[in-house]
Design brief:
The chain is α/β, with parallel strands linked by helices. The chain folds into three domains: about 150 residues, Ubiquitin-like (UB roll) (Roll); about 160 residues, NADH-ubiquinone oxidoreductase 51kDa subunit (Rossmann fold); about 70 residues, no CATH class. It has a six-stranded mixed β-sheet with strand order 1-14-13-17-15-16, sandwiched between helices. The chain has a four-stranded antiparallel β-sheet with strand order 2-8-7-4, with no helix packed on it. Strand 5 and strand 6 form a beta hairpin. The longest helix has 21 residues. It is globular and about 60 Å long.
Length: about 450
């Protein structure tokens, strides 16, 4: 079988996965104090539904919003609410958090159990909404919204590519919990009305491919697509093109071409929400990087301080040059290690100086490497230049908003220009300009 891939751009980048890809998932002890942000998702923040001094159980609702695009928040421990206040997050920003002192009992809230086969599509979406599930691959989009597409869909894609360097949490989940992922996929298919499901896995994960193929063997409506090891193979639009040969239009979404894309971890969370009534209050996180003593994959409660993950892995070999949330290509720099783990945190990486590689912003030498590498067929050199100079409308005219921010342009640039950083600033600047126009 020839591995599938997308037709343009992309590149081969170092994987750095060997430190954790064979290590089973371990359980990190629950924190003594859980700091749980009331916004861990794209959309409206939640309002607290508990009070200081109140006793709560693990899995209990502690924050919700009446807005359509939002995701409820649940306690990851049992204990007492000791504060509801702004706390500093890992990215340096502040957010309203529910602070809970763990009593160590892990008393769980009573939950309903169900078989997805016996539920209606609406009931499945309601169970997912009540569990507060979001996209756990990094985006954090509320899953119940994604499972109610405005257009008919025929295919659900599970993104098992995990093309980012270092990250192996999805890999280990496919090896260890393939059957649960498959049941989650089938539930998602019923919720959306899709008749087919495909799990896309990069060829460098043969053990995951074997486990998933065995798990789907009795379901003729499911298939595994083996993907070429090529960054950014796991980007949503590239995944759709590689597996289905469908092109998401400019400004469009997957449902415009009849599909929905979900993450491995998200599919498992959907199965858990339905079959056990478990809300989304823990996740698997890859802890890796050259500055970590003993890299591992850990099952972590939401609200656990990031520094606790590194401590469990033996601490640092030396002072890391940078600590990153997510992967090194699309993640963001962690400013405060006391900040909490959140639902969409797939990895925390402590990188050495040799691994990090910072922007130098030397003059552009017009080599076009960024243009050839761009998987969207854009001109990142011009997008970066226009955005950096505040020429947001000009950048919009050459498809600024179609950039998927994979960072490959910055990676291949011999002048080490901050192209993706400037492009992100350009998108923000363009949005601000349009918002001003609406007001005026």
């Amino acid at each position: 079988m020839i591995p599938k891939t997308f037709p343009r751009g992309g590149g081969d980048i170092p994987h750095h996965k060997s430190a954790t890809d064979r290590k089973p998932i371990e359980v990190l002890p629950a924190p003594e104090i859980a700091v749980i942000p009331l916004q861990q998702h794209i959309g409206a923040p939640c309002e607290p539904v508990v009070a200081v001094g109140e006793k709560v159980k693990m899995g209990q609702l502690i924050g919700e919003s009446q807005k359509f695009i939002s995701a409820s928040v649940h306690s990851s421990v049992s204990g007492e609410v000791v504060a509801i206040e702004e706390r500093r997050l890992g990215n340096g920003n502040k957010a309203l958090c529910v602070v809970i002192k763990n009593d160590g009992r892990d008393e769980r809230v009573s939950a309903q159990h169900a078989d997805w086969r016996k539920l209606s599509p609406k009931d499945i979406r309601e169970a997912v909404k009540n569990a507060g599930i979001v996209g756990m691959g990094g985006a954090g989009f509320p899953t119940h919204v994604k499972l109610n597409p405005p257009k008919p869909v025929d295919t659900i894609l599970i993104n098992g590519a995990e093309c980012e360097p270092y990250l192996t949490c999805d890999h280990r989940l496919m090896v260890e919990r393939a059957e649960e992922m498959v049941q989650g996929l089938l539930a998602i298919m019923k919720a959306t009305g899709a008749s087919r499901g495909v799990i896309g896995i990069e060829a460098n994960k043969p053990d995951a491919i074997a486990q998933v193929q065995e798990a789907i063997s009795e379901f003729e409506q499911l298939a595994v697509a083996v993907l070429q090891v090529r960054y950014p193979q796991g980007a949503e639009k590239q995944l759709i093109k590689a597996i289905l040969n469908r092109e998401v239009p400019s400004g469009g979404l997957p449902h415009d071409v009849g599909c929905v894309v979900s993450n491995v971890h998200t599919a498992i969370a959907v199965w858990e929400a339905i079959s056990t009534g478990k809300s989304s209050y823990e996740r698997v996180v890859t802890v890796s990087g050259g500055a970590v003593v003993d890299p591992r994959n850990l099952l972590v409660r939401v609200g656990t301080p990031i520094e606790a993950l590194f401590e469990f892995c033996g601490g640092f070999l030396g002072e890391p040059e940078v600590v990153v949330c997510g992967g090194p290509m699309t993640g963001w720099q962690i400013q405060d290690l006391s900040g909490p783990v959140v639902k969409n945190m797939s990895g925390v990486l402590a990188l050495t100086k040799e691994e990090a590689g910072f922007d130098e912003n030397l003059p552009c030498i017009r080599c076009e490497r960024c243009v050839h590498a761009c998987p969207m067929g854009l001109t990142p050199n011009l997008l970066g230049e226009y955005s950096h100079k505040g020429l947001y409308r000009e950048a919009e005219g050459i498809h600024l908003r179609d950039c998927i921010e994979c960072s490959l342009c910055s990676y291949v640039c011999p002048a080490k220009r901050a192209l993706v950083t400037w492009i992100k600033q350009g998108k923000a600047g363009l949005a601000a300009e349009k918002a001003k126009e609406k007001v005026s």
